[in-house]
Amino acid sequence: MQQATDAVVPENNTSEVFDQIRPRKIPNQNIVYRLRQRETHVRKPCTQFHCARQFHQNIFPNYTIVNLKKPPCFLRKFSPNGQYFIAFSADQTSLEIYKFLGSQAAGELLKNANGHMTKDDADPESHKIRNNIFDSFFHLKHTVNVAPNGEHLNRECSLFTDDGRYVIVGSAVFIPEDRHFFDIYRNNESISPNPKFMLEDYSLHIIDLETGVLCDTRKFKCDKIFLSHNQGIYLFKNILAVLSVQQQTVHIFHVTSDGSFIDVQTIGRFCYEDDALVYSSLRVEQSHPSHRQGNQYSDPTINSLKHRLLVYLYLKAHNERTPEASRQYFRYYHQFRSLRMWKMQLLDEDHLLLKYSSEAVVSLLSQDPNSLPSFFVVYNMVTTEVIAVFDNTSKKLLELFENFGDLFRNASLHTFAQFTCSSNIYARQIQERFKHTIINAKFGGHTEAVKRLLAQLPISSQSYSSSPYLDLALFSYDDKWVSAMERPKTCGDHPIRFYARDSGLLRFRIQAGGTGRSTPQQPPPRRLVAFTFHPHEPFAISVQRTNAEYVVNFHVRHPAALNHDIRSSKSGPSW
């Protein structure tokens, strides 16, 4: 009782306690001071890159051009070096390559613009800006006719090489219904098509951004490859992996310096290139080609990749040396054998991360696929060994993902900036908050939280922006409206505010677009917005979608808008 009394702070000492709390000192935000500090002070080793990115807290996009006029195309993204911007033609058969002229290119056009965004169409100056702003920033350099024979480019699929010279895009066309049976079922692991899992003919094209030349093409007939958001293709340095979900095969290609695809290996039915020769020498092959294909479809043997998975699980159960472990393996043996590859990614030049699940999940028949059991397999392509297997409730895999998230994202290929929970305490806070939300939710819990977090794996290639304005170490913003992951977000009615992380001061605001029109009888339509940030310059594009309408906005650096914000901050908020 005496200890509890001593722990209470007397009321007359409360003010003294608060007087002893020192307020956080705000670093000098003046850009001239920061430039002088950079010239006269020596930074700690390995911090030069992060110190240089601090200047983006002084140079930022603060002016919005709303609903601008653009060519009839679908805007995609910038190259890693920021020199080029690609877009798909309106008919999705051609790739348009634009030269980015720099964030200062529209200075002459915007010299008479005031405020923080363009006004309505009644203002002649705003009307002039909307009609000419696109040509001020972008110059059409090449239009490359890519998709042949009725194919259409997937406008959510593009992969850039590390040097920023080449881009890989994908196209597809639905196959006719009279395809031969053995064109669809080429091995005993092939998946049965359904209305939600329609097969197509796919093509992958590599294009030189500098010359506008279509360098090489690879075709995949009667197949299923998830091209949207690069889910079925992955590029690590010069190694390209393509997952054929229909044929349960991973194709590995080498991308040469002159823009060509070289076949390296095919992983699935066989793991080594000479496995087919050895296997055929042990069996009496029938003469007719269709009979040989029929043998592959009805082959009772287990394909090589699945066999290695089953052997790993058996040895794991055997090494535990308990009857219960062996019984569990044989109890679920048929479920293990019926697993199908769903997603994949390259961890490095030698290792693949494969995600297996049931055929109902892989063929898109399941309503909630992430709630069903699935397995993550780490496979070494050189030694053809399965290194590890985790299920989608594995706390060990979640710990690896949280502590080594940079290796899963391969975030260091194009930039040294990292936003993952393993290297950024602010990203870790966001993930922990998300985890606790699931744990405390109705029908939630720790197991459900692990499932939801591991559902992010495997991570699609080049799906995160390297823009410094999305760096959580530099800026604080609401990740509900915008994030480093390049996915459409719900469009809010208010601007997105970006605060400097070191000072807590409001730096700039981004207005995603005008509000949707609604009537008292009809609720407002759901609006989505996709952001595309330049890799390092103060320039961003937001494409707002309301039903079937698209509104494109540019967010640029404009000194007059900065002066307007300073004046408005003295008189009151202008938003």
Quick overview:
With 575 residues, this protein is α+β, with helices and mostly antiparallel strands. The protein is built from 17 helices and 25 strands.
Which range does the strand content fall in? Answer: 25-35%
Secondary structure category: alpha+beta
Radius of gyration: 28 Å
Q: Specify the biggest β-sheet.
A: 5 strands, antiparallel
Q: Uncertain segments of ≥5 residues (pLDDT<50)?
A: 1-9, 566-575
Count of DSSP E strands? 25
Query: Terminal Cα separation, in Å?
Result: 54 Å
Principal-axis shape equals globular
Number of helices: 17
The residue fraction in helices comes out at 25-40%
- Mean pLDDT comes to 84
Give the strand line-up of the largest sheet: 1-25-24-23-20
What does this structure look like?
With 575 residues, the protein is of the alpha+beta class. It contains 17 helices and 25 strands. The strands form six sheets. It has a five-stranded antiparallel beta sheet with strand order 1-25-24-23-20. Helix 9 packs antiparallel against helix 10 (323-331). The protein is globular.
